[in-house]
From TrEMBL:
PANTHER family: ANGIOPOIETIN-RELATED PROTEIN 5 (PTHR19143:SF185), FIBRINOGEN/TENASCIN/ANGIOPOEITIN (PTHR19143). InterPro entries: Fibrinogen-like_C, Fibrinogen_a/b/g_C_1, Fibrinogen_a/b/g_C_dom, Fibrinogen_C-term_domain, Fibrinogen_CS. It comes from Halocaridina rubra. Keywords: Disulfide bond. The keyword Disulfide bond applies. This is Fibrinogen C-terminal domain-containing protein.
């Protein structure tokens, strides 16, 4: 790499070389003159004049050399400044260009992501579809087919479960003692407690063959689960009749008692209890018979008590007797049966 200071040094060397050669020639000329002049006075005058001329020559040469060095140095400094300014401007322009490219890249990525989500939502009919497309994180997803958000459990039992009901201790407990219309449409918050809605359950569970899983926790006895090989909800004209398949799990089969029953709310009595409305007695709508073995839409047990039949309850046979499990956590979820 060639530097400005290298050019100056090289020039100084050439100048010195020329000065040295000229000086040598002049001295040789003077010596020859001395030898031939026999030290005549007029020759001495000429020698003095030659020496004076040489002195003036060296002074001019020194001045010219210094001026040249200053000029080259000044030019070098100016060049350095100009290069520095050019570099700064170039860096600024490159930064702007990089920011523009990154912005466009993010915009393209966002557009691709939106298009991907749209295409997925157009074809996905449930959480299992999403799971098979690579969406393996549990959480809230939007199903374009149904025009609604759903909660997906992508972790339990190989994932792909769509949660249709959830109960848990939250800052503000949701009131599940709701009317027929509220249960028809659904209510609550997917991030808290909710009921998906009977109209949705009917349409959803009739598009494919689904199975049901219930995960629940007793406040003292711990976690249980119950699995049913089929789950289907009838139309409103049938009272949203419940269709359950074969049971398996580590809890007592309490839900099969409600198989084939229509839904009952406090303002629409479809149960078989002749002396009143089960939903009114137990503070929550459900597929009651004469009334229940499992009641997952009951009152949340902020202070659990096995004597309070209005609490969220799953009756179990343990140690030779029937015991009410009082539940502090419940999730009811569905998933397509394998072909």
């Amino acid at each position: 790499m060639t530097r400005p200071e290298d050019v100056v040094a090289e020039y100084d060397f050439h100048v010195f070389k020329e000065v040295f050669l000229n000086t040598t020639r002049q001295l040789l000329k003077t010596l020859a003159h001395l030898q031939n002049s026999s030290a005549k006075s007029e020759s001495m005058t000429e020698i003095k004049n030659d020496i004076h001329a040489m002195t003036e020559f060296f002074e001019r040469l020194s001045q010219d050399t210094n001026s040249l060095k200053e000029s080259v140095h000044y030019g070098t400094e100016v060049t350095k400044q100009e290069l520095s300014i050019f570099k700064d401007e170039l860096v600024d322009k490159l930064d702007v260009l990089q920011q523009y490219i990154e912005s466009r890249s993010r915009s393209i990525d966002e557009t691709v992501s939106k298009l991907r989500d749209m295409s997925v939502n157009l074809v996905a009919g449930d959480c299992q579809d999403l799971f098979e497309m690579g969406f393996n994180a549990s959480g809230v997803y939007y199903l374009q087919k149904f025009g609604r958000q759903v909660l997906c459990d992508m972790e339990t039992d190989e994932g792909g479960w769509l949660v249709i009901q959830r109960r848990a201790r939250v800052a503000e407990q949701v009131d599940f003692n709701q009317s027929w219309q509220e249960y028809k449409s659904g209510f609550g918050d997917l991030e808290s407690e909710f009921w998906a809605g009977n109209d949705f359950l009917h349409i959803f569970t009739n598009q494919k063959s689904y199975r049901l899983r219930v995960d629940f926790t007793d406040y003292e006895k711990g976690a249980y689960w119950a699995h049913y090989s089929t789950f289907r909800v009838g139309s409103e004209s049938s009272g949203y009749e419940l269709d359950l398949g074969t049971y398996s799990g580590n809890a007592t089969d309490a839900f099969s008692y409600h198989h084939g029953r229509p839904f009952t709310s406090s303002d629409k009595d479809n149960d078989l209890y002749s002396e009143g409305n089960c939903a009114t007695y137990f503070s929550g709508a459900w597929w009651y018979d004469r009334c229940y073995d499992a009641h997952l839409n009951g009152v949340y047990p902020v202070v659990p008590d096995r004597q309070n039949a209005s609490f969220i309850t799953w009756w179990a046979h343990e140690e030779g007797r029937k015991v009410p499990l009082v539940l502090t956590e419940v999730t009811i979820k569905v998933k397509p049966n394998k072909p």
